[in-house]
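Submission checklist for the structure archive. All mandatory fields must be present; incomplete records are returned to the submitter.

[x] Identifier: CSC1/OSCA1-like 7TM region domain-containing protein
[x] Organism: Gloeophyllum trabeum
[x] Residue count: 1210
[x] Sequence attached
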Amino acid sequence: MTTSFTTSTPVTTIADPSTTFTSFSSYVASTTIFDPAVSQTPVVAAQAQPVCIGDGLDALSAGLIETIVIPSAIGLLLWLLFAIIRPRFREIYGLREWFPPPDLRPKPLGDKLWTFLFPPVPLVPAVPKDVSDTGRSPVKDAELFPSDEQLSQRTLWMAFLVVLGWSVVGLAGALPLYLVSTSCMANSAPHATYIGVYSVLQDLSLLRLLQYYDSQGSSIRTIPTFVKRAPDGSNQLTNARIRIIILTVLLIVLAVIPGVWKILKEFNRIVAYRERWLKVRCGGMDLAWLSARRAPGFRGWGERRLKEFIVKSGLSSSLETENTGNRRRVRNASEQPLTPVEEESLEVDIQGLFSIGDTRNLAMLIEERDEILENLEIAETKYISSFRLSTPDPSIADLEPTKEEGPHDGKKPYISRPLPLGAGARRNSRRNRARNPAYGSSSLTPTSYVAPSQYYKLGNLRGVNSDHASDASQVYPSLSDSINQRVVGSRFQEISNRNSGLYGTLPLGSHVKLKSGELRRVDTTTSEQTIPDPSRYGPNYGADAENTTASHYRGGGTEVTEELGGIDEGDEWVDVMHEPPQTFERQDYFGGYAPLSRRPPRSMQTPPVERRETFPLRARSQVGTVDQPPPHLRLQSGGPFVRPLSGLDHESLGAIYADISRWRTQLKAVNQEIAEAQRDGYNDIAEGARIKGWLLVGRGLRFIPGAKIIEGRAKEDIRWDELQHEMSHEGKVFAWIVLAVTSIILAAALTAVAGLALGSAPDFAHYFPFLAPLAGRNDWTAGLALCLAPAVAGSLFICMALTVTVYVAQATGAVSISGLEMITFKTCFYVLTAVGAIWLITIGAVLFAMRAWSMDTERTRSVADGSIYMSFLALMFILNVAIISPALLLLQPGRLLRIPASEKHAVTPRQRFRAVYPSTYNASFATGCCIIGLIFASTFSLIFPLIGPAVVILIFLTLIAHRYLVGYVYGRTRSQTGGLLQLWLLKRFGTLVAFQPFLMGLIFLTRRLWPEAGVLLGAAMVVVMIVEGYATWKTRQPGVSSLSNVTRNSLDTFGRMAQSRRLELEEESLSLVSSSNRNTRMRGSFASVLEMMSMTLAVAPALTRQKGPVPLPTETIDDLTATERAARTHPDAPPHLPPLSFADHAQEMSGVLYAPELLAPEPIIWLPNDSSGIGRSEARDLDKYHHLKVTLDVTAQEDVLAPHRLSASR
C-alpha cells in the first residue's frame, strides 16, 4: 500500500510501482510505505491535528506556558514572602550578623524590602595568590583563605558563565539552522498511524533538521532509477548536509572547547588554592584516625608505650614521652643519628597522639547532666522571673493586666503551685529537650541517676537524741523513703521518728550525715536546712563558713505565726541586700520541732523607704481609697525596688525553692560521678584498656598503614560517635544496598513520569489506552497533565530520593564530617546523573519507539528521535524549579517553622541559644537543582536551544540566594577542606561537557552520517580523557616509593607491629585484670582536666598544640564548654562587646584531641540577667555557697562592664 501527503501545488512528480514522491517549489516530502498485511486504518476520531509553529497552540505548547506561569507565580510569591519576613526574623535570616566573632561579621543589612538582593558581600569571592599576611588576624585569614561555601559560589559562577555561553550558541547559532528555509514538523514528519502528533516544541529542536535531511535523503536515493537528478534537489541536499556540518562545528568549536577550557582554568585556580591552604594554613600538617581494628598489634598498649615505640621506630621527632629529652635522634640502633636538617625535613613525623577509649557510659552520664542542668536553669529562671521592679508609691510600673477573680477569697487572684520538675516533667522534657547542637560533642540516650551504694549504708546511731518524745501511733515515712527523698549533695539526712527492728526507736528530728561510708549524728546547734525563708533569702542562700552567727529559715510552727503577727504594718520592709536582718534574727525549722528563740526587742524607729524588703511578709490590711494624682504624675519618694509578682505567695516560691535545691543537689552528685568516670577513662588510656583507636597529628600521615585522613583537620570534623561505634563491613554493605534500592525505586517512578509526558507522542497512546484522552486534545487541560504534572511529580520523586540518600549515607562508615559530606555529595551527584538524567532520557526514548519495537522497523532511528523528544520534559523540570528552588533555599521553611516554636517554648537562655543555633551549608541540597540543570544543559543546549535560558535563570537565581545565605545565614561551624569537594565537582562538570557531542554523535549514526558522527564521538572521548587525565595529574600525590629508604624502613616496622596478633592478651581480659590494679580513686573532682590528664597519664598533653595550625579553628560554640561566649551570641546583644579577659575551656582545650567526654568540664550555669538584679544575686549565692560556676546572659552593653566571670574558683 502506498500513501502520499502533499500540502502545496506539485511541480514535478516521479513514481514507480513501489515509491511515489512529489517535488515542490520549496521542499520535498516523501511518503511512508506500510506493509499491507500489517497496515491498519488510522484512528482519526479523537486525533489532534498537528500545528505548525506560529499557527496556534497545541497541548505541549499550552503546557509550556502553564509551566512557566504557575511555578513562576509561586516562586515570586515565595521571594516576596522572604523579603517581607526577613527583617522580622533576624535570628534566622541575619544569623551571621551576631553569631560569629565581631571581626568576622558582615556589615548589617537594612530593613528595606529588596536589600538582600545586593548585600555587601562579593558575588564571586576572590582567591588571592599572595598569602604572606597569613596569621596576622582572623579577618585577614578569612580573606586569604575563603571557606568551602564561598568556593562553591565560585563554582556556581563558573557554571553560570559556561551555560550562558552555550545558550548564546544555541539561540544564535543552532536555532537558525533548524528554522530557516525548512518545513515545520506538521508538514514534514510522517503522521502517526494510530494517534498522537509531534508538538510545536519539536520545531525548535534538532528533530526538525533531521526530518528535513530525511526527506532530502529519501528523494535523492530514488532519483537515479528514473531520471537525472534535478538541480533544485541537489541544492536542497547540499543545504541539509551543510547545516549538519555547521552544527557539528558549532558544537565542538564554540561549545565544547570553550566549556572545557573555562572549567579547567577554574580547576587550576582551586588546585593552587588548595596547595596554599595545605602548606600555609595547615602548615603541612595532617589529622588521621588509626582504628584498633586496623592495628590489632597495638591493643593493650598504653599511650606512653605507644609513643615510645613511635619515637624508637623513627616516625616522630616531637612526641613527649616519660623521658622528654629522649626524642627522635636515631631511627634504629644500627643507623646513624639524624642531622638537624633531616629533622626539619622529615617525610613522616607524628607530632601528636591521642588515644580514644570507650566513653559510651561517660557520654550517657554527661547527657544526663545536661538534662539536670537544664532543669536547674529552668527552676532558677522561674525564680528570677517571679520578681520585678516596683516603686514605693503606686505608679505605671505597678500596673498589671486585669485578671479574673478566683473562687478563693475574692481579694486577689490565686496562682496555683507550678508543676513539679519531677519524674513526670523529666519524661516530658526528654522528648522535647533540644540536644547540644555543637559539632564535636556526643549525644546519647540519657540514663537514670542512682546514688552511690555506700550512701544507703546506715551506720551506728548511738548518741542520737531528741528533745521530743516519739509517738508510736503516728505514721511516718520509711527510712528508705526518707533517704531517697533527697539525693547526695551535702550528705545530710534527717531520719524520721519510727521504730526500727535493728536500732530500736529512733529519736525524732535528729540530723545525720555520711562519714566514712556510714550515717552518723550531727550536732544540731549548727544545722543546715534545704529551703530558706523565701521572705528573706534566695533559694541558693547558705550560711557562710566565716559568719555562722545565725541562720534564717521559714518557720512552720504556731510560735512563728505569733511572732510574725506582732510586726507593725509600717515596718514590714527590710532590704537584706544592703542591711543585715538584725531585727529578724531567730532560728526556726520546718514543722516547729526545734526550739524557737525569741527575737530581740524591735527598734521603734521607722526604717527609711530604701531599707524596705523586696516584698511584705504578710498581706496588707485594706485601706480606704483616697484621691491621688494619676500614677504617671506621682513623685516617688525613693528609687524602685524589687517585689514578687502579684499572686505569688510563700507557698509558690517555696515550691520553686524545692525544685532548685533538688536539681542543684543532683548536679553536684552527677559532677562527682562524671569526674570519677573521667578518671577511669584516663586510667584506661594509660593502661591500654578498651581502646577504640588513636588520633594522629603530624606530617605525612597518609603513609601510615591503616590510617584514614580527616580532611577537615579540625575537632569539629571528627565523628566521635562513629569512632565509638565503628560501622562493620556488613553494615556498610547494607547501607549501599539501601541506596541501590532507592535508586531503583526512583528509576521506576521516573519511568511513570516519562510515560505520562509522552502521552501525546505519535502512536504512544495506542499501546497505553488510558493516555488516549490526552493524545486527542489540544487544550490547556491536556497541557497541564502532559507538562506540569510530570515535572512536579518528577521533582518530588527526586527530592525524596535525595533525602533518603542523605540520611542513609550516614551509615557508610565515614569517620569525619567532611568525609561523610563528600560521600553524600558524590552519591547524590551520581543518582542525579545516572537516574535523574540518563535513565530518564533513555527510558523516554525507548518508550517513544514503542511502535518501532512492535513493528520491528527503524528502531534505532525512532529511539534517536525519542531522545530528542524527551528534551521538552527536561525543559519542564528546569522551569518548574528555576524560581521556586532558590526561593526555598532563602526561605528555609523547616527552620522558619521550627525556630519560632522553639523560641516560644524556650525558658532559659541556653534553650534559646540552642533553638537559634545556626545551620550549616549542605552542598547536596544547595546545589542539587543546579547540578541537574547543568546536566540537562550539557546534553541539550544545542539539540534543544530553549533549555539553555531556563538553566541560566536557575543558576543565576541560585547564585543570588547562595551569596546571601553564605554571607548572612549559614554558620561556618564545620571545618573547611580547602576546596576538596569543589575540585571533584569541577572535574565532573568537565566530564559532563562530553554528553552533548556523545548524544549527537549517536543520533547522527542512526542517519548514517558517518563523518559527523565519528567526529562528535571522538570529541566526546577526547574530552573525557583530557579532563580526567589532567585532573588526576594536577591532584596526584607522591606515593610510598617517593620516600627515602629510612622512612620506608620505619613504616615497615610500624606496619609489622600494628598487624601482629597478640593471642595471649585479649582486650576484655586486659581490662578486667587492669581494673583491679589501678590506683585508689579519691572522691571529689580535680581542679582541671589538664591536672587529671597529667596525674593519670604521667605525661601532660602538649599544650603548644592549640597554638599550632592543626586542629583548625571553626566558629563552633559549645554552650557547655564555652558558655561565656555563648552568652554573648544574643541577636539583641550589642554588636561590639569588649573581649573576654580569659580563655574559656573550649579555647584552652582546642589542641587536645581526646574524646569530648573526657575533656568535659563542670558545666557553667547560664542564668538570665534581669533588670532587678535577682540573676546576679543568684549567681553570687551559687558561687559562694555551692561552688557552682555561673554566667549571666548578655543583652546590653552594661552587662559586661563588671567582671563577667562570677565564679572565683575558675
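[x] Structure attached
Curator remark: The chain has 38 helices and 16 strands. The CA atoms of residues 839 and 929 lie 17 Å apart.
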